[in-house]
Design brief:
single chain, mainly alpha, TIM Barrel, three-stranded parallel β-sheet, 7 helices
Length: 165
Amino acid sequence: MYAGHSELWGPVCSWAFETATHALRLVFGGVFERYPKARVVLGHMGETLPFSLWRFDSRWLVCNRGTRTLAEPPSFYIKRNIAITTSGVCSDFSLRCALEAMGSDNVMFSVDYPFEKTELAAQFMDSAKISETDRVKVASENAKRILRIGRRVGRIESAPAAEKK
């Protein structure tokens, strides 16, 4: 597939396609049916998945799937169980498409270091042609919620006085 075209290998193409394929294997393998609270975060505006939701649903109905079944269409699991980041894609058009496809609660800001400059990504987020409500969600609120930033996950018990020495 990449023979004779080394430019396709790596960040231009192969990483996105191969990562998307792994995510789809989780969906079609029923992982998100068995573990409905599982969450995967994909970079690069979702490695093309948000732009193919309709196709996944329509082709799932007619594909050679053997004994595989899903209770819901593939897009249901992608939107419920996969969050995406903006890393590596500083495009207003792509961001608006991702927000529309995945919902504004499933998109998070990220920088694709070392492949892009932090300043470029920050400028993009500051100037993206999206609503201020979506900008706040994407820039910080979604990450706080999805990654549980600032939340105490468990209770830390105080060590007995004898152990504090």
